[in-house]
UniProtKB/TrEMBL annotation:
<keyword id="KW-1133">Transmembrane helix</keyword>
<keyword id="KW-0472">Membrane</keyword>
<feature type="transmembrane region" description="Helical">
    <location>
        <begin position="30"/>
        <end position="50"/>
    </location>
</feature>
<keyword id="KW-0812">Transmembrane</keyword>
<protein>
    <submittedName>
        <fullName>Diguanylate cyclase</fullName>
    </submittedName>
</protein>
<feature type="transmembrane region" description="Helical">
    <location>
        <begin position="7"/>
        <end position="24"/>
    </location>
</feature>
Amino acid sequence: MQYSYVGRREVLVFLSIIFFLSTVRDMENFGWFSYSFILFTAFIFATAFIRYSCDINEESITYHIMWMGLLLYKKRVPPNQISHIKFKRYGWATKGAVVHTHKGFNIRLIDFKPVKLYEELDDFSNKHDIPFIKSKDYQLLEKLGWDRKKQVSE
């Protein structure tokens, strides 16, 4: 099953529009600095369209980073390349996991929807005998079923 995370687009688009309008309005006062501010605004606007996705199947975990449908980064990690998985709580009631690999970058899976991802990742680690660590805060979220309640209300 494919799981995805889409950033806070509305906030980033709103901020980039505000920055752009204020820069264009005061362009003659700031000179060359306003051009660098426009580039910064364009960067913020572009990051609003980044999407992360994760696929977990029988033989591997695949992680994608896409920008407006264009694949920027793809990493496929078979179980023998995973050193361990660390489950943690991020924020007040957000589950997250970090897949630590032997080579390359670790995979951070935070605030992915649906939250069933973390249960499936737990099953994947048990099936392939991959060691995992669950923080006390994460275990508390599991015990309370907090994310399931949050997902039902959305």
